[in-house]
Amino acid sequence: MTSYVHWVSLMNSLGTTNESILANLEKGTALGLKACEGYRIDGSAPVLGTIPGVLSTHWPEWATSVEASRNNQLLLTAVENRRASLEAALEGIPPERIAVVLGTSTSGSEEVAHYIKATLNDEVTHFSSRQQEMGDPARFVARLLGTKGPNFTICTACTSSARAFITGERLLKAGLADAVLVGGCDTLASMPINGFESLGVLSPTVCEPLQASRHGITIGEAVGLVLLKRETSDVAFVGYGESSDGYHMSSPDPDGLGAKTCVTDALRRAGAEPQDVVYVNLHGTATPANDAAETAALFSLFGDKTPMSSTKNLTGHTLGAAGVTDAGLLILMLGANRPVTLPAQCERAQLDPALPSIDALVEPRAIAPGLMMSTNFAFGGNNTALLFTRTP
Asked: What is the pTM of this model?
């Protein structure tokens, strides 16, 4: 079954509206990438991907709500930015036939950190344990929109919001919903930032996917919401793949076997061949292990004939929101219905010669509408691939 995109709202370090994000993607400009203090235990200020601009509090209960976490504020803002068009897309659908499936990996963990610090200092904070519950994002959005269908949050680390797409597709196919709002949200938090530093893979500067000089990830915050329905629209969600190789707790199979399995699975579901894909948005975290395993898997399928790049040097790695951030950029590109010029990943001389020779963007490239793929991989060998295309 094919489902169709009827509404999308993104926010990340590229911008706070769909229009600004697409424009800044083409320019290769991310105003939200900046050195940020206050997260690292050692007092350093690594470059992180922040969302520029003012967030919404346009909800009557916000000031006193126990749901007033930053995660939920991003979700609120993403809805309010395009509420009229979302309500139009949902018109006539009974609330009990509308589902909400989101992904996150940190939820309200930064609020928990602030609460612990405040408690140790005998200070009072406006904190509720609901803010740290992984189910809170979907529950909040369902309450915000008044939907009554299934609502739940998936937490599979960096594939969380990609799996939200997969689950949304299954709900539609099973007839359990007529519309599913999928996506995810993660905000900057001390726990994952220091956690990645402890693994030795946090970059102090903007990350450099596929480059010989790369030495780790740039963490970012982001939110993305996408409405899927059965009715035809301009952009179709035509295939997905998933696998779990369980190779290592925090490292991928070095041969990329799990990644290859999920990409092959996605192509099979879409009834497509590798040569049909016009662009792949790589997971591309800029860690030595991920880039090596991912390029090994994709080179074995695509060779050097399919344009590929990672956009994490513009958005940061948005963890539980990575799936919807990466896929969301493809949706915006397809929705533009014109060739979209993507910035170069890096100069050819900067590519890591130890990596397989995929067709990485070593100069700006105009990508015409067609079959596009995003890949996301998570700790524990959890792998996903999503395929979108422009509806004929």
From this structure: 0.95
- By C-alpha distance, which of 138, 181, 183 is closest to 327? 183
pLDDT in tens, 181-213: 999 999 999 999 999 999 999 999 999 999 999
**Cα dist from 13 to 25, 28, 29, 151, whole Å:** 10, 11, 9, 27
Name the 3-class secondary structure at 244: strand
User: Would you call 62 exposed, middle or buried from its count of C-beta atoms within 10 A (0-12, 13-18, 19+)?
Assistant: middle
Neighbour tally for 312: CB within 10 Å: 27
Q: Is 114 a catalytic residue?
A: no
Contact 37, 190 (CB under 8 A): no
Backbone torsions φ then ψ of 94, nearest 5 degrees? -60, 140
Please say if the pLDDT value at position 29 is more than 90. Answer: yes
Rounded to whole angstroms, the Cα distance separating 142 from 233 reads 24
In whole angstroms, what is the distance from residue 281 CA to residue 307 CA? 9
Report the SS3 class of residue 86: helix
Place of tokens 């929101």: 321
Which residues have a Cβ under 8 Å from the Cβ of 226 and sit 6 or more positions away?
A: 5, 7, 8, 165, 181, 182, 183, 324, 327, 328, 331
Active site residue 283: yes
Q: Alpha-carbon distance 124 to 223, whole Å?
A: 29
- From the number of C-beta atoms within 10 Å of its C-beta (0-12, 13-18, 19+), residue 326 rates as buried
User: Which of the residues 158, 207, 262, 346 is marked catalytic?
Assistant: 158
- In the set 6, 185, 283, 346, the catalytic residue is 283
In eight-state DSSP terms, residue 140 is H
Integer Cα distance of 51 and 321 in angstroms = 13
- DSSP letters for 123-178: ------GGGG-TTHHHHHHHHHHT--S-EEEE--GGGHHHHHHHHHHHHHHTTS-S
Identify the residue whose tokens are 């009827």: 6
Tokens of 117: 């610090």
Is residue 215 flagged as an active site residue?
A: no
Instruction: Tell me the Ramachandran region of residue 132: left when phi exceeds 0, alpha when psi lies from -120 to 50, beta otherwise.
Output: alpha
Dump pLDDT digits (tens) for 337-352.
999 999 999 999 999 9
Q: What's the rounded Cα separation, in Å, for the pair 6 and 227?
A: 5
225: its two tokens: 């919401």
Both structure tokens of 347? 């100069």
Residues 185, 207, 262, 317: which is the catalytic one?
Answer: 317
